[in-house]
Amino acid sequence: MANSREDLSQFDISLEEKDKLVAEVIRYILFKTHQNSGCPIKRDELTQIITKNYRQRALPAFVINAAREKLSTIFGYEMKELQRSRPSSTNQGRASQQSIADAKSYVIISQLPADVYRKYVEDVNTAHLTGFTFVIVSIVYLAGGKIAEDGLWHHMRRMGLYENEANHPVLGNIKQALEALVQQRYLQKDKVNGHEGNILFYELAERALDETINKKIKEYISQIVKNDGASTDVK
Predict the structure, then answer these.
(1) Distance separating alpha carbons of residues 110 and 77, to the nearest angstrom
(2) Are strands 146-148 and 187-194 parallel, antiparallel or unpaired?
(3) In angstroms, rounded to a whole number, what is the distance separating the alpha carbons of residues 65 and 74?
(4) Over its length of 235 residues, how does the chain's per-residue pLDDT go in tens digits?
(5) Distance between CA 72 and CA 110 in Å, rounded?
(6) What is the distance between the alpha carbons of residues 145 and 69, in angstroms, rounded to a whole number?
(7) How many CA atoms, within 13 angstroms, populate the side-chain half-sphere of residue 114?
């Protein structure tokens, strides 16, 4: 308690004020995660909550770190920082135009063991979306991390998923389901100028490049190859 009050002395706010700010940040993170189906939350959004009534420059980082600690110890979530990855065709000059602060965002990931999470937390009503995400990310992964839009739809059509389908019995609008993976930062779009005009590519974004996700994809693909003896080449 004494250390906490000493830390706060540099900001000239009370412990009660700090706790209120931390609670507001946590509430916003949990609400937005649920509302936006797990889309990353920009650091700027959290900063605005804090700077609405306070102007101390270092306060946002202090409060966000405190919120991260409470999310872990009380709610069992890791608040993971994502550094927005750039499309492979983006040159350094264009990338530097966006500030580092704007590029940072957060997602929360359960720290529970997988079996406990499945039994007590996982929503069976969204399990199909998890499966869709995993399959699409695996297709792009097998293509070398990047695949032309036409190529991706070719593989999706083989699974019975068509770009003009708006009322799929499980996924609903297929184009919107695919776009959701972009919003959630599993994929990103990259438009490349070619001899035949602009070609749209989908490539892995920061969440799909995360070490934990990457490891699961490799295990999943290895299991399929082991069971089916199928080739893993995606062209």
Answers:
(1) 5
(2) unpaired
(3) 14
(4) 445 555 777 778 889 999 999 999 999 999 999 888 889 999 999 999 999 988 888 899 999 999 999 999 999 999 999 877 777 776 444 444 444 444 689 999 888 887 887 777 777 777 788 889 999 999 999 999 999 999 999 999 999 999 999 999 999 999 999 999 999 999 999 988 877 778 999 999 999 888 877 888 888 788 777 766 544 454 4
(5) 9
(6) 33
(7) 2
Strand 197-204 relative to strand 187-194, pairing: antiparallel
**Neighbour order of strands in the sheet with 187-194:** 146-148, 197-204, 187-194
Strands 77-83 and 197-204: unpaired
Coarse DSSP helix, strand, coil percentages of the chain, rounded to the nearest 5 percent? 55, 15, 30
Tokens (6 digits) for 188: 């990103």
**Where are any strands of DSSP class E within the chain?**
41-42, 77-83, 104-110, 146-148, 187-194, 197-204
- Asked whether the beta carbons of 5 and 15 are under 8 A apart, the reply is yes
pTM for the predicted model, two decimal places:
0.78
